[in-house]
Design brief:
Layout: E1 2-5, E2 12-15, E3 19-21, E4 24-26, H1 32-37, E5 46-52, E6 57-64, E7 72-78, E8 80-87, E9 98-104, E10 110-113, E11 117-123, E12 128-134, E13 143-145, E14 163-164, H2 166-169, H3 176-179
């Protein structure tokens, strides 16, 4: 695996390094030793999947607060998504900055979303499926969220929204003073 840190400290793009032959290829998408060698956390508590039938479906922005803050490894296994993360760590020099990356079944790219980040995605094609591993168990009382069009983030989504949950559409405005997450940016 090839790890490339983004402009948001602790957030990495991970590209597979396939070994191919006449059958196709083989590649590792997770290796505890390689993650440890890169100085990244290796705990996986849960694996989740989401399926969206319509192009333009928007999910997010979601996070969990400490002590249940979670890191995520997100990959699109069918179709294509525009995946967005926002740094919510109070002490981070990139506080409230975001990046968006295209993850597709064809590029097989993975994004590592660190603890203290909001995460959301928009499907770029119909019948899209994502698979993601998370470092903590889902904890409803630790759940946080913001509207994908929240003015605090000013995210530019690539498509008009066709489908979105009522819950995601109705989160209150993000309050940087009270909703930011106290996670240090020194480690991963």
């Amino acid at each position: 695996m090839k790890f490339t840190e983004t402009k948001l400290k602790g957030a990495y793009l991970i590209d597979l390094e396939p070994i191919g032959d006449e059958r196709g290829f083989f590649a590792r998408a997770w290796c505890q030793k390689e993650f440890e060698a890169a100085g990244l956390g290796t705990r996986v508590s849960q694996a989740n999947m989401s399926f969206s039938k319509d192009k333009g479906t928007l999910r997010g922005m979601h996070w969990q607060t400490p002590p249940s803050a979670e890191a995520k490894l997100v990959r699109c296994i069918r179709g294509a998504i525009y995946d967005v993360i926002v740094d919510l760590r109070k002490d981070s020099p990139t506080f409230l900055q975001w990046i968006g990356v295209e993850l597709t079944a064809d590029n097989r790219r993975i994004i590592l979303v660190p603890e203290g980040f909001a995460h959301g995605m928009q499907t770029l094609v119909d019948d899209t499926e994502t698979y993601y591993q998370v470092s903590e168990f889902y904890t409803p009382e630790a759940e946080g969220g913001a509207r994908p069009n929240d003015p605090a983030f000013n995210i530019t989504w690539p498509l008009p929204v066709t489908t979105q949950s009522e819950k995601d559409a109705n989160w209150p405005d993000f309050d940087p003073e009270h909703a930011a997450i106290n996670i240090t940016t020194g480690g991963n």
